[in-house]
Design goal:
With 391 residues, the protein is of the alpha+beta class. Helices cover 23% and strands 39% of the residues. The protein folds into four domains: 134 residues, conserved putative lor/sdh protein from methanococcus maripaludis s2 fold, CATH 2.40.420; 92 residues, Efflux pump adaptor protein, beta barrel domain (Elongation Factor Tu (Ef-tu), domain 3), CATH 2.40.30; 59 residues, OB fold (Dihydrolipoamide Acetyltransferase, E2P) (Beta Barrel); 74 residues, Orthogonal Bundle (Helix Hairpins).
C-alpha cells in the first residue's frame, strides 16, 4: 500500500515530495511499525526518530553542531527624511527686479546651467555700467602713471606727482577688480546689460523640487540689503538622508557603516535599507539623545523630505551559544529542536526531540540558547518539521 505523508507535515508547509519520500522510507524500515519476527529493526521510543543515512539523504535532512556565535540585535528609533545636502541647491536671486518668464516647472529634470527663470533688473545695467566705468578709470590711471614716470625719470616732474599717480592707479585697479567680481556674482554671461535681463540658471543636475514664484512677481536680491526669498529648489532624490535620535544608553552599540532598515508610514509593506554614515559628537542636553544620519538609496523617489519613518539600526550583540532559526519547532506553547544522539541499537541514526528555551528578543538568523542544548550538540537545521511529522 502506498505510504501517505503525515497530516502534521503537510500542515507545517513541508514539500509534498519530501514528505512522501521520508514517510515511505521510514515506513519501509519499520520506524513506527512493529517489526516483523526475526527483524533486526526496533521501534524507537516516544519523541525519537531513527533513520538510515539513505533516508536522511532522500529527505534532505541537514545536521549542524551548536556553536558560539555573535548574535545580532537592533535599535529602533523614530526618524525623519531629509535632502542629501550634497545633492540639493536652494536658489535665490542675486539681483532685485521682476520675474519676466518661468522656464522650468516643478518635477522637471534639469541639467547644470539650464535656465530656470529670467528677471528684469536695473541691477544688471548698474553692474555693467560700474564695470565699464572702472575699466575706463583704470586705463586713465595707467596713462597718467606712465606720463608721470617719464617726467620723473627726466627730472621734469616731482616725486609727489609720481607717487600720487601710483596711488591712483592702485585704487583704479582695485575698483576694477571689485566691479569684475560683482559682475561675476550676478552671473557674468547670464546677464544682458542691454535689456537689463538676468537669467537664473541651475547650479547642479537634478529635479525641480519646488518653485516659489510666478511671472510678474517682484523679488529681492541677495545683495540688495533686504530679505531674499528662495525661488527654486533643485535636488536629486535618488539618495536621501534620514536623521534619527539614539538614546544615550544605546549609543555605544551604534557604529558608522551599520545596516539600517527603514519603514515609512506611506509605504507600510516596503522596507528601505541603507547605512549609518554619521554620528553626532555631542548629545542633545534636553532629550539626552545623539543624532545619527543614515544614507538611504531612493531610486524610485518614494521617500520624500520631511516624511516620518521608523528606523531600525543593526547592532552587534554578545557572543553566545546560538542555533539557527530554521531549527526551531513550535509545539503548543513550547519550543523544541531535534538533536542527533548517535546510533540506535539497530544501527540507524537516532534523533531526539528536545524542549529548549531561546531568547527571541535578540538575534536574527541565529537565536541565543537559554537552556536545553549546549555547544557541540548536533541539531537538525533543515528538515526538523518533517521529522516532527513522523512522531
Amino acid at each position: 500500500m502506498k505510504a501517505r505523508p503525515s497530516v502534521a507535515a503537510l500542515l507545517l508547509g513541508v514539500p509534498l515530495a519530501a514528505a512522501v519520500a521520508l514517510t515511505a522510507a521510514v515506513a519501509a524500515s519499520g520506524c513506527r511499525s512493529t517489526p516483523a519476527a526475526g527483524s533486526a529493526l526496533q521501534q524507537p521510543p516516544q519523541d525519537e526518530v531513527w533513520l538510515t543515512p539513505r533516508q536522511l539523504q532522500d529527505a534532505k535532512v541537514q545536521v549542524e553542531p551548536v556553536e558560539m556565535r555573535t548574535v545580532g540585535n537592533e535599535i529602533v528609533a523614530s526618524g525623519k527624511v531629509a535632502f542629501d545636502d550634497r545633492r540639493v541647491a536652494h536658489l535665490f536671486s542675486p539681483v532685485t527686479g521682476r520675474i519676466r518668464r518661468i522656464l522650468a516647472e516643478p518635477g522637471a529634470r534639469v541639467k547644470k546651467g539650464a535656465p530656470l527663470a529670467t528677471i528684469e533688473s536695473p541691477d544688471v545695467g548698474n553692474t555693467s555700467a560700474d564695470l565699464g566705468k572702472a575699466n575706463a578709470d583704470l586705463v586713465a590711471a595707467e596713462h597718467d602713471l606712465h606720463r608721470q614716470k617719464e617726467l620723473y625719470d627726466a627730472h621734469a616732474g616731482s616725486q609727489r606727482d609720481y607717487e600720487s599717480a601710483q596711488d591712483n592707479h592702485g585704487k583704479a585697479k582695485a575698483e576694477m577688480e571689485r566691479s569684475r567680481q560683482k559682475a561675476r556674482l550676478f552671473g557674468g554671461a547670464s546677464a544682458d546689460a542691454v535689456t537689463q535681463e538676468f537669467t537664473l540658471r541651475a547650479p547642479i543636475d537634478g529635479e525641480v523640487i519646488a518653485r516659489n514664484v510666478n511671472p510678474g512677481a517682484e523679488v529681492q536680491g541677495q545683495y540688495g540689503g533686504g530679505t531674499a526669498v528662495e525661488l527654486f529648489t533643485i535636488g536629486d532624490l535618488d539618495q536621501v538622508w534620514v536623521f534619527a535620535d539614539i538614546f544615550e544608553m544605546d549609543l555605544a552599540r551604534v557604529r558608522r557603516g551599520a545596516t539600517v532598515s527603514l519603514k515609512a508610514i506611506a509605504y507600510p509593506a516596503e522596507i528601505f535599507t541603507g547605512q549609518v554614515d554619521w554620528i553626532a559628537g555631542a548629545l542633545d542636553p534636553v532629550s539626552r539623545t545623539a543624532r545619527i544620519r543614515c544614507s538611504i538609496p531612493n531610486r524610485n523617489r518614494e521617500l520624500k523630505p520631511e516624511m516620518y519613518a521608523t528606523v531600525s539600526v543593526a547592532v552587534a550583540g554578545p557572543t553566545v551559544a546560538a542555533l539557527p532559526r530554521t531549527a526551531v519547532l513550535r509545539i503548543a506553547d513550547q519550543t523544541a529542536v531535534f538533536v542527533e544522539t548517535g546510533a540506535a541499537p539497530d544501527g540507524r541514526l537516532r534523533f531526539v526531540r528536545r524542549i529548549v528555551a531561546i531568547n527571541e528578543d535578540q538575534g536574527t538568523d541565529y537565536l541565543p540558547i537559554v537552556r536545553g542544548v549546549t555547544p557541540g550538540d548536533r541539531i537538525v537545521t533543515t528538515g526538523a518539521t518533517l521529522l516532527s511529522g513522523m512522531l
